[in-house]
Amino acid sequence: MSGVGLDPKTAPTFPMAAKAMLGDTQLRKNVRHATDVIQEKRARVVGEMPDWQELREAGRQIRRHTMEYLDFYLEEFEANCTRAGGVVHWARDAEEARGIVVGLVKASGSDQVIKIKSMTTEEIQLNSALEAAGIHPYETDLAELIIQLGEDRPSHIVVPALHKNRQQIREIFQREMKLPELGERPQDLADAARMFLREKFLRVKTAVSGANFLIAETGGVCVVESEGNGRMCLTLPETLITIAGIDKVLPRFQDLEVMLQLLPRSATGERMNPYNSIWTGVDAASSGDGLRDGPRVFHVVLTDNARTEILADEEGRQTLNCIRCGACQNACPVYRQTGGHAYGSVYAGPIGAILTPQLQEMHHAQSLPYASSLCGACYEVCPVKINIPEVLIHLRNKVVKQNTAGVAGLFDVEAGAMKAMAMIFRSERRFRAAQRLGRVAERPLVRRDGQGEGWIGWLPGLLGGWTQARDLEEMPKETFRDWWERRGRDGN
Amino acid sequence: MATDMVTNSRAEVLRRVRAARGGTSDGVAVRAGWDGIAREYRRKGTREREGLLALLEDRLRDYDARVVRAAGEGVGQSVAKRLVERGVRRMVVPVGLPVEWMPVGWLPASAGEVEFVVDEGLSSEELDDVDGVMTGATLAIAETGTFVLQNVAGQGRRAATLVPDYHLCVVRAEDVVETVPEAMGRLQETAGLATTFVSGPSATADIEMTRIKGVHGPRSLDVILIV
């Protein structure tokens, strides 16, 4: 039922995928509109906060401190969650995480699950594993439902279906929910989703969620959402399975005072999102009205999946500070042109450009560190001050080192070209010859623009990499050296 | 064998974390490190009581909630008025809701036109069958337009404030704080309880970034502020 996940192992390189996306004017219009709206809202509510920079700094320090002592906080979370009646599982990689979740769902006796939007479950491609085991997952976030019914893939961390407009969503709902008379107003579409899912919320006994934060001090889990679908999944079923990366830990309950100010304002441009749920283990019915509140069985799956690789890299480590607000995506000029799918990963945009290759231990998605203009807009909006441009450059170095290491390095074309360039630059005679050769060779490729300037939009063969993403200006008719010599000869 | 694998995964992930960070964390250093985090942001608000309440009202209205004030004995009357306005016939209330907040002549079975049902463990289907729910709140945050519900007397189970279409929340003025840090400070002692922050009715902006109310949770929200 759900489409094939975005898999960095099989996805085309960013320049190739981006080229195709740039041709989709409807998608670009949808992405531009959505990111404009969120950015405008975000700027307004961030502007209200006189202490925004102090909050960012505290956020950065809390996250850095957590990574510094991650083993301590993971064990503390495990102990407190267990004491409160939760069951904590550990997964080394995606395969193990999938296996644990599938096993737990089967043990719950259900062949259906309701799901809260979770990028971690997308990352480990949980839905196809559930389906392969005969378990049907129902996505309950409106955007994720649109993606699931449309056999599409998410393109944004916070608003996964922002690449679809209302007509496109209506077509999907008409077809999949069998509603030929469905209206076109956003309200009609939301009502259809409400009708479609209400019955599932009341009937399905097992839920799967992600987590925004795991609180070490209390063993509590926090989920931030807007629609109430999250609360439905966390509250009504008998069994709740929460899957979280090991990076989601927060030291103390009090630290939420920083994160709950930074996250909603950065993510959706709201002072606070409609619902934050914080729960700890299973309710022992020892307080309040004595009635049991929420699931009877609660599992947390702590997933590494290459996060410890990132932790081990001193310069790349700050990537783990990310709280998944998506502000960097909205601000990024590259993302705003291509949308999310070009990144070939569920984590798109600037954060995806640094997170995805590292989650792949730098073996896949190597073109992503180059999918950026290094303009710094992502760093400026990041609520926990991740210096994304710095990490991008660090990863570019890693990519080059990996590709020039060993036998492959002997045949590396780029390294060879650089050597040839160095040789040319060392000799005046060779340099002049190269300039002359260049002017002759470029002639058939030069096109005039409206101002009469000459531009090259396509270079052949290996040089083509340069013109894939930019145009090249025509070489000047006369070089500075030629002009200088002519000036001397003419006696001016 | 399965147990072995589970134990091994735990040990392996922790081993990797420690290898990446150069050893096992020491509790004293962890504590000192946390204490050393710079927290230069605002903790306390600066507003006087009236300014504080006005801010809360403004922020709640911005979220499409209706807000009214009521004095001590007028709460029940104000509740009755809201329920008539909203056309509500069946309301669920949690155990322990203050009786003085109920409309005059209220009895557990009915109050004139409106029938009240006390949640003594209603099923999800039964909750789906009532028109609305009425609760108190632990506190409210003026700056963000938020009130906080916990699993305590008068606020009830999470499902009760989620499944019905309409939510009427009664907030005491003395429980209103200005900033998020002030709220977290007050919640610290009961941090283990199921806690829900509510800011306006259920909403989504997933379709062309147009804000739509009432996707899965309550579609409408009224707040009565007791002053």
Task: Please provide a written account of the structure.
The complex is a heterodimer of chains A (492) and B (227). Chain A has 492 residues and is an alpha/beta fold. Chain A folds into 2 domains: 14-310, Rossmann fold (3-Layer(aba) Sandwich); 413-490, no CATH class. Chain A is built from 23 helices and 13 strands. Chain A has helices at 14-22, 25-47, 52-68, 70-83, 94-107, 119-123, 126-132, 142-149, 166-176, 186-203, 229-235, 256-267, 307-312, 327-331, 333-338, 349-359, 377-381, 388-404, 406-410, 413-426, 428-442, 464-467, 480-490; strands at 87-91, 112-115, 136-139, 206-209, 213-215, 220-225, 239-245, 249-250, 275-280, 297-303, 446-448, 454-456, 472-473. In chain A, strands 1-10-7-4-2-3 form a 6-stranded parallel sheet, sandwiched between helices. In chain A, α16 (349-359) runs parallel beside α18 and α20 (413-426) crosses α21 (428-442). The longest helix of chain A has 23 residues, at 25-47. Chain A starts with 13 loop residues before the first helix and ends with a helix. In chain A, 51% of the residues are buried. The model of chain A has no long low-confidence stretch (mean pLDDT 92). The mean pLDDT of chain B is 92. In chain B, the strands form 3 sheets. A 6-stranded parallel sheet of chain B has the order 1-12-7-4-2-3. Chain B has a 4-stranded mixed sheet with strand order 8-5-6-9. A two-stranded antiparallel ribbon of chain B has the order 10-11. Chain B has a single domain (49-226), classed as Rossmann fold. Chain B is built from 6 helices and 12 strands. Chain B is an alpha/beta fold and 227 residues long. At the A-B interface, α2, α3, α4, β1 and α8 of A face α1, α2, α5, α6 and β9 of B. Chain B: This is L-lactate dehydrogenase complex protein LldG. Chain B: Residues 123-226 form the LUD domain. Chain B: InterPro entries: FTHF_cligase-like_sf (IPR024185), LUD_dom (IPR003741), NagB/RpiA_transferase-like (IPR037171). Chain A: Residues 308-334 form the 4Fe-4S ferredoxin-type domain. Chain A: InterPro entries: 4Fe4S_Fe-S-bd (IPR017896), 4Fe4S_Fe_S_CS (IPR017900), FTHF_cligase-like_sf (IPR024185), Helical_ferredxn (IPR009051), LUD_dom (IPR003741), LutB/LldF (IPR004452), LutB_C (IPR024569), NagB/RpiA_transferase-like (IPR037171). Chain A: Pfam families: Fer4_8, LUD_dom, LutB_C.
